[in-house]
Specification:
The protein has 204 residues and is α/β, with parallel strands linked by helices. Helices cover 39% and strands 23% of the residues. Strands 1-6-7-4-5 form a 5-stranded mixed sheet, sandwiched between helices. Strands 3-8-2-9-10 form a 5-stranded parallel sheet, sandwiched between helices.
Length: 204
């Protein structure tokens, strides 16, 4: 994981809160994030950048900023990322500093749907202004089934993600809250309660 220096307090906006959602692929993280965005108008999705190709119905500027490898590397050189990582072989993901500026300028809560290492790093940077939530699947086998069912990756890519998931699960203890997603409705309710408390600055 790579972090670029970012002095929040010398910018034209006031730093607001950050919600960090991380999990292995197939854990239901994105489903939970989209649900929360519909319920809480104070939340705003931070669009990550990547050099991978879009999957399914993903749209540029909505789900991700889809960049070429050369474009991504240029932005790294120009110090335009809050954090970035080479997650898989030559597959870059990063959080543009411009997203934090855009969201906080509106006094909204920045919502990051991000890789576990990125989540841990942003938590370290933002500190108490951030709440880091780990979405945990019931098991690695359930993860494999979910990834296979969604049919967006090749069998080889699925196995790569499953292997990575085993490492990612070891990061769970570094997050503030762990939500077990063995039942989606229960996980959504728990996420709503946690986010509502965080927005209202209530002790969770």
């Amino acid at each position: 994981m790579n972090c670029a220096p970012f002095n929040f307090y010398n910018t034209h906006f006031i730093m607001n809160k950050v919600l960090i959602f991380s999990a292995p692929s197939g854990s239901g993280k994105t489903t939970i994030v989209h649900h929360l965005l519909k319920i809480f108008p104070q939340l705003e999705f931070s669009i990550s950048a990547t050099n991978r190709a879009p999957r399914g119905e993903e749209k540029n500027g909505v789900d991700y900023y889809f960049l070429s490898t050369e474009e991504f590397q240029k932005k790294i050189a120009q110090n335009e990322f809050l954090e970035w990582e080479n997650v898989y072989a030559e597959k870059y993901y990063g959080t543009p500093k411009s997203e934090a500026e855009r969201i906080w300028a509106k006094n909204h809560v920045m919502v990051c749907d991000i890789d576990v290492k990125g989540g841990v790093n942003i938590k370290k940077i933002v500190g108490e202004q951030a709440l880091a939530i780990f979405i945990q699947p019931p098991s690695v086998e359930v993860l494999r089934e979910r990834l296979t069912t969604r049919s967006t990756d090749s069998p080889e890519a699925i196995e790569c993600r499953v292997q990575k998931a085993q490492e990612e699960l070891s990061y769970a203890s570094q997050f503030d809250v762990i939500i077990m997603n063995d039942n989606l409705e229960n996980a959504l309710r728990e996420a709503e309660q946690i986010v509502r408390a965080f927005i209202n600055s209530v002790q969770i």
